[in-house]
Design brief:
The complex is a heterodimer of chains A (120) and B (396). Chain A is an all-alpha fold and 120 residues long. Chain A is 69% helix and 0% strand. Chain A contains six helices and no strands. In chain A, helix 2 packs antiparallel against helix 4. Chain B has an eight-stranded mixed beta sheet with strand order 1-4-3-2-5-6-8-7. In chain B, strand 5, helix 11 (285-298) and strand 6 form a beta-alpha-beta unit. In chain B, helix 11 crosses helix 15. The model of chain B has no long low-confidence stretch (mean pLDDT 92). The chains are: A mainly alpha (120), B alpha/beta (396). The interface between A and B is large, with 52 and 67 residues.
Chain lengths: 120, 396
């Protein structure tokens, strides 16, 4: 068996300069770390979901059972919905910035509104 | 209960075979997160780029220059400064890197087992021919496509197939299942099209250039079970894995050979059908033209060549669409993509020797065997990653 450094290799960089999209590369770095944390949280949540389902179904718990768990159609949809909601929750600010851009009438400066309310 | 939320299928639905990597619970969950992230980016965040373009970026450019955009490069330079585009780009790049990390961490801990599985299916078969002396073309060496560290060809150990196992297990995630359980929607679509439109055409010898792990050539070989199919690629890990995969799926009429499509040495007029699927955009200008000439030389009279690619950039395509389709070229390490989609493909084939009137161009949609995927197909437009292709080619 040949020894390879899995931890390092799994995370290695691809050939070609990495693009940075934000003016400050530190922002991009934080984003990448945050996303990875978000993913790991999703993983934990999914594992918990599995354990709960198995506990309810059988009252027995084993690691192998968790690793081979196959969600049925309904569970699959529920789990994917959870993932979808989770992602929407984390990236909420982007969706909201878009809504502001799309509907400027709903995005008036609150100080202006305060002024207006004071006058009317 | 079909939901309106347009959910991607769980990764458990991916088609498995004898050389497919084992995935534990958390590895599957990681892929489920990434498929959902990709679906969210494609359906919620990506459309925002068009809104930012119309509402913010374009009016500003017009006000400053007193004219509209004239090239997609101008659009890109202007969009680069837009905060929404920056956020989407950063998320999309990050998602691709995370998908590669997840796939590699999944396959690397079973690298030996995967190599053994492949070897068991490959040993003693004369339908796998590797050439360790083959020079890897510059266009493959110069960059790691799709941000895959080590690309298609790097071997971490003897008999390594991890590059292919990573690709195979993760493609379902990147495409959110839209290519079907076996990720073979392209190959299935083109063979269905050919059988329907040209039932009289019965190819006896078929060549697939740049076959990768053979996911698109398998349905072609299944559609023409009496044909001798030859699938070539420069990357040994892909061929080892692809051959083992085909064998396990019971498809025995494909010979996988380690060869460069620009210089394969096959005889003149020796194939009835020569196919490439999502390959040409990963080459280079000179290689593309060389491959074109080689295809013409190797085809029998009356033979057919077909190429599945994304739509070409033509004058009819809006600059915004050209710009957004270019994203993968620059930021997903597919640098020739941009140039390739500028090329007049009709001219490419006529320069190779084909008659102008023999040129064909069609649009095909991935044949998908997942119910959830069919539903999603109607609503997801993830430029460059959509399961809808431009197919061009010619009869000789």
């Amino acid at each position: 068996m040949e020894a390879i450094d899995r931890l390092l290799l799994a995370n290695s960089k691809s050939k070609g300069k990495r693009p940075y999209f934000f003016d400050d590369p530190a922002v991009e770095r934080v984003l990448n770390i945050t996303l990875a944390v978000a993913m790991e949280h999703a993983v934990t949540r999914e594992r918990l979901d599995t354990i709960e389902r198995l506990l309810i179904a059988k009252g027995i718990l084993s690691r192998a059972e968790i690793d081979t768990y196959e969600p049925d159609t309904i569970a699959a949809e529920e789990r994917q919905r959870w993932q979808a909601e989770y992602i929407a929750r984390i990236l909420r600010i982007i969706q909201q910035e878009l809504e502001a851009l799309e509907n400027p009438e709903n995005n008036r400066d609150v100080e202006d509104i305060a002024e207006e309310l004071g006058r009317t | 209960m079909m939901s309106k939320e347009n959910l991607p299928p769980v990764w458990n639905r991916v088609g498995k075979h004898g050389v497919f990597p084992e995935a534990n619970h958390d590895e599957i969950a990681r892929y489920n997160f990434l498929a959902n992230l990709n679906r969210y980016l494609a359906t919620v965040v990506s459309p925002g780029n068009k809104i930012a373009y119309e509402k913010r970026v374009r009016p500003k450019f017009q006000a400053e220059r007193d004219r509209d955009f004239e090239t997609r490069e101008e659009v890109r330079e202007a969009m680069k400064k837009d905060p929404h585009y920056q956020a989407w780009s950063a998320l999309r790049r990050s998602s691709m890197e995370m998908r590669q990390q997840a796939g590699r961490s999944l396959v690397l801990h079973q690298a030996n087992e995967l190599a053994e599985k492949a070897e068991r299916l490959n040993q003693g078969k004369d339908t796998l021919k590797l050439n360790p002396d083959l020079e890897i073309p510059h266009y493959v060496r110069v960059v790691d496509h799709h941000c895959m560290p080590g690309s298609y060809y790097t071997e971490l150990m003897e008999g390594d197939v991890t590059a292919a196992a990573n690709y195979d297990s993760g493609l379902f995630v990147t495409t959110t299942g839209l290519l079907g359980r076996m990720n073979d929607g392209g190959g299935r679509a083109i063979s269905q099209w050919l059988k329907t439109e040209h039932p009289e055409f019965q190819p006896k010898r078929i060549l697939d250039i740049g076959c990768g792990l053979g996911h698109n050539v398998v349905p072609i070989a299944q559609a023409y079970p009496d044909a001798e199919v030859i699938a070539i690629d420069v990357a040994a890990p892909m061929l080892r894995y692809g051959h083992a995969r085909a064998q396990d799926l019971g498809v025995n009429n494909i010979t996988f050979i380690q060869m460069d499509g620009a210089n394969s040495g096959f005889a003149d007029r020796s194939f009835d059908w020569i196919q490439t699927t999502m390959f040409l955009h990963e080459t280079s200008s000179k290689s593309l033209h060389r491959i074109g000439k080689e295809i013409y030389r190797m085809l029998k009279p009356g033979g057919l060549t077909l190429h599945i690619e994304q739509p070409q950039y033509s004058e009819d395509m809006e600059l915004y669409e050209q710009f957004i389709r270019d994203w993968d070229a620059y930021y997903n390490n597919e640098p020739f993509w941009s140039k390739m989609h500028d090329i007049d493909v009709k001219e490419l084939l006529t320069k190779a020797g084909f008659k102008e009137e023999a040129f064909i161009q069609i649009a095909v949609k991935a044949a998908n065997d997942i119910a959830e995927g069919q539903q999603a197909e109607k609503t997801v437009e993830d430029y460059g990653r959509s399961p809808i292709w431009n197919v061009f080619g010619a009869w000789k």
